[in-house]
Amino acid sequence: MKKQTAAGVFFNGLIKENPTFVQLLGMCPTLAVTTSLKNGIGMGLSAAAVLVASNVIISLLRKLIPQKVRIAAYIVIIAAFVTMIQMLLEAFLPDLSSSLGIFIPLIVVNCIILARAEAFASKNSVLHSAADGLGIGLGFTAALCLISSVREILGAGTIFDIRLYGGNIKPMSIITLAPGGFIVLGMLVAAVNFIMRRREDKKNG
Question: Superkingdom, according to UniProt (predicted)?
Fold first, then answer.
């Protein structure tokens, strides 16, 4: 089996192994914070920063961490970077920090971060681990931005707090609620997988 390049690893995480639309990981923050595009961008980039940093450190230390305590060690490393991100948000973007609330600290136990640490960073080089973290992180960010854009435009009638509709058109407020989140997510997952399957069929055909 041919070994992937760093670029291949990056694009694989971004598209083929997209954590939201393909692997269906991290559903709790995905549904909870995507009521506005600002929240989607903030949550996605925060998770991406933690992914890249933790992947690099875990890859560097992979031969030094004892097998029996590897998960605990990963959580400690991830928690350190999450704490840094939380403190930076509180210092420079307090409104965003308040809006995201508990979901920033919960990045520590996000299954996307732990899965990449265990499945990839602990077994691969620093360069490939960094590329994997960046690809998965930006794939997660792109998915959150797409979901939150649809929910904010249809459910609130705004984008970045700029009103889009006139007085005669009322937004569908249910889209900003939990049922609307499931509906939008399901439709986008179906659309993305349909497009990817069509492309695979064309390549194979």
Answer: Bacteria
